Amino acid sequence: NMFALETFTKSKITEVGVLSQKNREPDQNPGAALSFTLELSNHNLAYFDGSLKSFLYTKSAATTTAPKQNGLEGIEEVSDMPNLTAAGAKLGKLHWNHELTGYSLEIDQGLGGKNSNLSIGDVALANFRIEPKEGGTILVSFVGEAQDVPEQVFGRLATLKNREVQIRLAPPVVDQSDLGE
Q1: CB neighbours of 18 closer than 8 A, spacing ≥ 6?
Q2: Does residue 151 or residue 63 have the better pLDDT?
Q3: 9: how many CB neighbours lie within 10 A of its CB?
């Protein structure tokens, strides 16, 4: 169960950096390091570790003074476990030391039309930070690095710094025949 964003998800690109390998040929494209921050339901904690959600969240407020929020009719609850546990409230941002490789990233810049979307392949995800928020959402930030980004794509990425975009992240397709017996 690998981390993925199967549908377009609102995200902010907080940094756009150039990766340049020392041994790069003059005609080779530079790499890009993109920093993303997005808000997700705490269900997504399962991508990282199955026990994180119950460690950071609980079904009911820790104190009886917290107002009981009744679910609004017709509005989907963010989470079945919206309240922070004592640990969730005190830990703050978690550094999650994990690298994922072989992702496909698609960025919708909001220009309309699928052809205006930026697609980048073979992206490595690392530097995860997870911040649990009261109410059942988590702020997730990570860096996506791609070693080979065509010039025109790089130019467009540079204009997206500090902008909100919609992103999709597809995990690598595992070839079953590679898995052996």
Answers
A1: 30, 31, 32, 33, 154
A2: 151
A3: 18
pLDDT tens track for 57-80: 999 855 444 444 555 455 567 889
**Model confidence over 129-145: pLDDT tens digits?**
999 999 999 999 999 99
Judge whether 99 and 172 are in contact, CB under 8 Å.
no
Place of tokens 């995990």: 171
Supply φ then ψ for residue 45, to 5 degrees.
Answer: -60, -25
Q: Is the dihedral of CA 161, 167, 143, 77 positive or negative?
A: positive
Both tokens of 29, joined, read 């494209």
44 token code pair: 């997504």
Tokens at 51, concatenated: 């026990």
SS3 45: helix
Q: How many other CB atoms are found less than 10 A from the CB of residue 37?
A: 16
Whether the pLDDT of residue 41 is over 50: the answer is: yes
DSSP summary character for residue 116: G
Q: How many CB atoms lie within 10 A of CB 31?
A: 18
d(CA 81, CA 136): 6
- Length of the chain counted residue by residue: 181
Provide the phi-psi class of 171: left if phi over 0, else alpha when psi is between -120 and 50, else beta.
beta
Helices within the chain (DSSP H only): 52-56, 86-91, 151-158
